[in-house]
Amino acid sequence: SNMIDWHYEFIAGMWVPLGKLKLIGLHPSIGVSLGVKYKKVLIDGSMIASFINSSNEYNIVYRGNAISTKRFFRWYLGVEGGYEIFRRKRHEIDVISGIAYDAFQAYHIKK
What are the Cα distances from residue 100, in Å, to 42, 47, 74? Predict the structure, then answer.
């Protein structure tokens, strides 16, 4: 249709590190995604946070000093775009691509 269709989702999951980052452990994640669809074109923005400090201590280097920490806070900001390629009644298939900034904080700087 020619109408603008707004959509949203609430996100809950788990951040699961691989390789050497397994030491940091699993962390719950929550977030929200908001988007719009006009005709067959989709645009979404997502924000996700992961939290709870690591159960293991790990070492970082800050200003040339080795520091042991358990701190963990992750944030993800993403934008996705897509295009509907198939629709039948209430079902559709979309091709989606996006870009995101994904980082975590391992140390809190005391000022």
Answer: 16, 10, 13
